[in-house]
C-alpha cells in the first residue's frame, strides 16, 4: 500500500505539529469510521506514555507528514491531543541541562 493512500492523497496536515510534540489519546471515540491507520495511531497513543510524533511515525513505518495528517484528523475528532515541545530559552537552564547530561555521562563511565 502506498503511504498516501492512508490519507486519501492529502499531503498537508490541518494542524501544525512538531516532530517532538507529544500526543496522547483522550478516550473519545470518533463518531465516523476510522481507517486501520487511524486505529493504529489511537492504540499507540493510548498504550504508550505520550509518544512523540516521530515515535508514532516510526511505529507506523510511514513518513512523518503522513503521520501528521492522521494525527490532525484524530485531533479534529477530539480523539488525541498534542503538547508542543518545551524549548529552553534561558541560558541558565541550558547550563543546568548541560551539567545534568555531563553528570549522567560521568556516572556511566
From TrEMBL:
Pfam families named among the record's database cross-references: DUF742
Record InterPro entries: DUF742
PANTHER family: DUF742 DOMAIN-CONTAINING PROTEIN
Protein name: DUF742 domain-containing protein
Taxonomic placement: Bacteria, Bacillati, Actinomycetota, Actinomycetes, Kitasatosporales
